Amino acid sequence: MTTLPSLKNFLWVASSIALWVLMCTPVHAQWKKIPSSAIPRGADGKPNLAAPAPRLDDGRPDLSGIWASSGGYNQNLAKDLKPADIPYQPWAKSLADERATGLHEREDPDANCLPQGVPRIDGVPPPWKIVQTPGFVLIVYEAFNLWRQIFLDGRELGEDFTPSWMGYSTGKWEGDTLVVDTKGFNGKTWLDQAGKPATDALHVIERFRRKDFGHMDIQITIDDPKAYTKPWTITEQAHFLPDTELMEFICNENNVDLEHLKGTPVK
């Protein structure tokens, strides 16, 4: 018998396959007169994803392009950790355990077409596009047509901010790694599909490092003193998607997820 958590995972997998089919459709299906790209290719014409990471004129690694998570972190952000390694506050552990039963799936913001938030959106199946400039980095997410600005100009988040789903991001370069600090959350997001909680005190540190042309590590530190006794860190992997573009993703247009899930929907 299929359990509800398994059913939801199945729905995610099914939607991911559909998205992958769309992503694998040649970009020529949408566009004509496409200029040749700077993607390195082997003698057979296939992209050489093991080629060195590209660099800009200022010597910084160029993170630009379309990327996708290597999988699993949307379902369980801590999938590479032991359960005991997650330093929950007692109330957060109790809530995470309750959500993990699958009885509250309809309360997941994602199931209600609400933003996945940071860092969860780094690990969802749909891809995302990085646009890099000297003053800021823009990430455009196919999921729900969301976006982030990461400011590199030295600004700091003030005290009188509007709490948000995606937070407010600033960044700096440490060698070849882009270090991103994000704060200012509204406390409504789940860190993953399993239901790990977050509060308005959440502070996320992401470290983006492009290892070669086709592979990037994203080290993510969760610092939320209201939900966890100390910061904890995981590392996701992302891979470059050549010869493709983002597609429109309007969740509210055909959200058939909720009717299959148990619990009370978000109001």
Fill in the keyword field for this structure.
267 residues; nine-stranded mixed β-barrel; 9 strands; globular; disordered N terminus; Lipocalin; alpha+beta; 2 helices
Task: Characterize the structure shown.
The chain is an alpha+beta fold and 267 residues long. It has one domain (4-26, 56-252): Calycin beta-barrel core domain (Lipocalin, Beta Barrel). Helix content is 12%, strand content 24%. It has helices spanning 4-24, 90-100, and strands spanning 65-69, 128-132, 136-141, 147-151, 168-174, 177-183, 203-212, 215-223, 232-240. The protein has a 9-stranded mixed beta barrel with strand order 1-2-3-4-5-6-7-8-9. The longest helix is centred in the first third of the chain and has 21 residues, at 4-24. It is globular. It starts with a helix and ends in a 27-residue tail after the last strand. Residues 1-7 and 10-26 have low confidence and may be disordered.
Superfamily (CATH H level) name? Calycin beta-barrel core domain
List the secondary-structure elements in sequence, H or E.
Answer: HEHEEEEEEEE
The tally of helices reads 2
Q: What strand order characterises the main sheet?
A: 1-2-3-4-5-6-7-8-9
Quick summary:
By secondary structure, this protein is α+β, with helices and mostly antiparallel strands.
Strand and helix map with partners:
Elements: H1 4-24, E1 65-69, H2 90-100, E2 128-132, E3 136-141, E4 147-151, E5 168-174, E6 177-183, E7 203-212, E8 215-223, E9 232-240
Parallel strand pairs: 4-5
Antiparallel strand pairs: 1-2, 1-9, 2-3, 3-4, 5-6, 6-7, 7-8, 8-9
